[in-house]
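Before relying on records like the one below, remember that each one covers exactly one chain. Contacts with other chains, cofactors or solvent are not represented anywhere in the record.
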Amino acid sequence: MIGWKHILAWYADVPSDLSASEGRTFTGDKIGYTVWIIVQGLSACIFLQLDQNVLAAFSAASVLIISFSFYCLVSGRPSIGYFLVNGQSVLAVILATVFVGLRPGFFLFALVGLVFCTLSEWVSRRIQRVGMFANAAAFIGALVLGLMARPIAELPPLWELIFATFNGAATAGMLGMVALTYRHMVDVAEAALESEHQKSETLLHNIMPPAIADRLKQNPKVIADSHKQVTTLFADIVGFTEVASQSSPESLVTLLNRIFSQFDALVDDLDLEKIKTIGDAYMVVAGLPAARPDHAQAIARLALKMLVAAEQVSQETGKQLQIRVGIHSGPVVAGVIGQKKFAYDLWGDSVNIAARMESHGATGRIHISANTAKLLNDGFELEPRGTIEIKGKGQMATYYLIGERKTTKPDV
């Protein structure tokens, strides 16, 4: 004997080749066809008792039509069932109105058919519109026919009331179910859309500053802003080629990700702007897109913390990791150019000098220009390096950043 659990499991079973939306429609159609077969069978018995032989015969035939539609659904030909059920529904509305009039409310099922036509996944949108038009025409035709002509064989008042109550409640229930289903689907779609939007926003803000991203979304054109005073930092892993030759590609990428993630956290803590990484080089700037008076001090603090972070990763991994840092302060142009794979970047002589500070520096030290040294004032301890030849710039006075001076509160 088949138990209820087996029956429910059969109704819940969906072919694996159907999409999620098709699976929902498949389950809904199985339930709908079952209910409609039962309703038509009961209607045939009731009409037969009321001497409505034509309607009784049609309801009995409808049981066979819907049963065949059910078979088509589960055997992989659901579109045939779509045409048969819609045709049966339209004909039932007209036939019931001709024989018993409007008061029993059978014409309301044309509204149900109109709405349910849009939910089928088995036919094209064009065929759905044809089905909607047929049900709408049946609804309007039944109204006009019922208002202009007397029914062939009216039902007893009690049965008119029973049918009107049942048909009205069934129509309201099914339309309410469709409305709730639609509302749920809209809510789910909107939630998914908002989630994807947030992911896109987060990704975009990771690529460039939020203010620049917002400008780019509003007006997707070249962005180029001049900034008179910013401080740029370049850091490079010394001996990276040797480390790379001794590591697998996977472990090398993991190592780079580990140390650069540490740097990223420091950049976020100090509210600075990471520009990019190029191989084993790391570039950061302070003072844009919004100006800040302490741009040199902020970058200096970052550089000192980066040395500590690199040493920590070196001890934890057993790899000889040392970085070389270069810093310069001056004007730059910052913006976004290009149409594909665009990124926020910096241009100008100040950027080149910062890169030269890094390449002409020493391992494990922070090499800064005279411009940056002047901005740091007495808040940091500096070691003069003297005047050295900088490629492409000639003789320049530079310094090494040693650390931040501790401030002491005056005695009261």
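Residues 117 and 131 are 6 Å apart (CA to CA).
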